[in-house]
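Please produce the structure of this protein holding adenosine-5'-triphosphate.
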Amino acid sequence: MLFPWTEEIGIDLGTANTHVCVKSGGVVVRESTAVAFQAARRRPICYGTEARRMMERQVPGVDVVRPLRHGAVADFDAAVDLLRHFMRQALGRRPLLFSPAVVVAAPLDASAVQRNALTHSLRAAGAGHTDVVPKALAAAIGARLPVAGVESRVIVDVGAGATDIGVISMGAVTAGCTLRYGGDDIDQALVRAIRRSQGVRVDPVSAEEVKIRVGSVHPDLGQDRVTLNGTSTNGNGGSEPTSIVVQGASELLLKAVLPIVGEIAWVLEDLPPKQRAEVEESGVTLTGGCALLRGFPELITHHLGIPATVAKDPLSCTILGLESITADLSALTLEGRRFASTS
Ligand SMILES: Nc1ncnc2c1ncn2[C@@H]1O[C@H](COP(=O)(O)OP(=O)(O)OP(=O)(O)O)[C@@H](O)[C@H]1O
Ligand SMILES: [Mg+2]
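Below is the modeled complex.
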């Protein structure tokens, strides 16, 4: 604890979803990472899930910005607006003597520029002292893996913009990588596949709807055929509304998640034999929204020959880990290692 009168908060600023927790107050913000601006004057109108709804409805005169791309801040000013709003929402209206101390999660191999963009946007939004912890470590703590143990565990956090693969032992990430590929890229793969097969252009929001409605990388585990409203290009070069049927969607989703399976294989292959034997036995734990795709763990087991499971409430693991870290900041060392138990 810095000072007894300083508020401490945890922030998971994800590409699609932002969560904020307050020390001893639980998770108080669960919103989309989006800001809606009045197009003419770039004045923020609303934030989070409300802004995302405006994006889905394509409200005229409104620009909706998603400030993160592939897990990194891409629009600094919009990120500051969003963080300032959510921090105020988390802390309420009470006056603070000092700026809140923040623990924020960042992708494992975020560059110095990306880290600076994150910490500077937090500072500009009103944060005080900021600790940056690896997202994989926070997700592993939130998934209730025994991170403080000597034996290595593997966490795979598949979000919207990136996949963090972390091998964790003794409270630290000892190996791993960030693949800048996640749910947004799976949506894009669907957009391309539908355009190729049917000549119809669907927007990424509709592609995401297909992904979630199909919800599976195996035809037996979900709905394989989805009807969707999209737009097609007519003979005059204009576009017109059309209804399309996407058939074999789980096969498309399977192909779209294979790069993630391949990357896990690379990380495991690079491990020293002892660590590798340990993780082959304990297996992989999946977190992040894309872990909700049914059949994903079975696919990993099929390709890599190791057990794979989905954590409870995978969308919340990173913030639950940050909540646990915030509750006992003294257990966090300067290098982001965490020794204390997760309970
Ligand atoms: N039921 C579901 N089935 C499949 N995918 C889902 C489901 N629910 C959410 N998703 C996907 O999960 C992703 C959002 O997950 P998450 O909130 O973990 O990402 P994020 O933390 O915002 O992103 P990142 O950590 O990559 O910056 C989106 O791509 C969304 O479409
Ligand atoms: Mg995330």
